[in-house]
Amino acid sequence: MDRLVDLLPELWAATAETLYVVSLSLVFGGIAGLFVGLALYATRPGSLFPNRFLFGTINVIVNFFRPIPFVILLAAVQPIARSLGIPGIGPEFGIFAITIASLFAISRIVEQNLLTVRPGVIEAARATGASRSRILLRLLPREALGPLILGYTFIVVALVDMTAIAGAVAAGGLGEFAIVYGFKQFNPAVTWAAVLVIIVIVQLVQFLGNALARRVLRR
Q1: DSSP character for 167?
Q2: pLDDT for 140-152, tens place per residue?
Q3: CB-hemisphere CA count at 13 Å for 100?
């Protein structure tokens, strides 16, 4: 326990680093995944902008990357990161790798949630003269907002898990803290301190996401 007390500054710094990586990964991956998900929905057969070739291409790319275990993806994208001038370790690399992983997961969640919007809503909007682009970019996200919030909440929790895994390749955060000061130094108290902080973060994210989704769904 004395060792844990001594490491409290490092623990708080690792917590801040985890939140930093998660936040930026959510911004980059969340925005990119939203547009890819919209493209998947819009170009599927029978949708607003049906395009079999484009839908098939995007669908294959998403299905190619999404099943790759994150720990393997970390190793696979490291040379790409270095070729782009991003260090192969540290928080910047963690953001790069997690953004790629989250992008494809988010795109599928967005597509699936948009598919839950009742066709009658779209037909009514078309009958009032709304353009297809307006329906895609404004109506559909608003109608599916509650499920989308829950989906993004799930992704944020997954991002916290990814940052912990990224710590295994010195990408910073609570994962690296637990490995360096806990696992490698045979100090389970330090490891469990990191675990408890991660649990608190996840519980707060889940609580806030559920509360916001309930508020939206009641409208």
Answers
A1: G
A2: 998 899 999 999 9
A3: 22
Residue whose entry in the numeric block shows the structure tokens 């936040």: 23
Give 82-115 as a DSSP string. HHTT--SSSHHHHHHHHHHHHHHHHHHHHHHHHT
43 by Cβ neighbours in 10 Å (0-12 / 13-18 / 19+) ranks as: buried
Q: Please check whether residue 53 is in contact with residue 191, taking contact to mean a CB–CB distance below 8 angstroms.
A: no
Q: Cα separation of 129 and 33, whole Å?
A: 29
Please give the structure tokens belonging to residue 46. 């029978």
Residue 205 main-chain phi, psi, to 5 deg: -60, -45
Placement of tokens 């997961």 in the chain: 105
Is the CB of residue 49 less than 8 Å from the CB of residue 132? yes
One-letter identity of residue 124: A
Q: Is the separation of the CB atoms in 205 and 153 below 8 Å? A: yes
Query: Which run of H or of E encompasses 71?
Result: helix 70-83
Token pair of 179 as six digits: 């490995």
Neighbours of 68 (CB within 10 A): 15
Q: Does 166 score more than 90 pLDDT?
A: no
Residue 219 has pLDDT above 70, yes or no: no
Q: Are the CB atoms for 33 and 110 separated by under 8 Å?
A: yes
Closest CA to 101 of 130, 61, 65, 128: 65
Radius of gyration of the chain (CA): 20
For the chain, give the longest Cα–Cα distance. 70
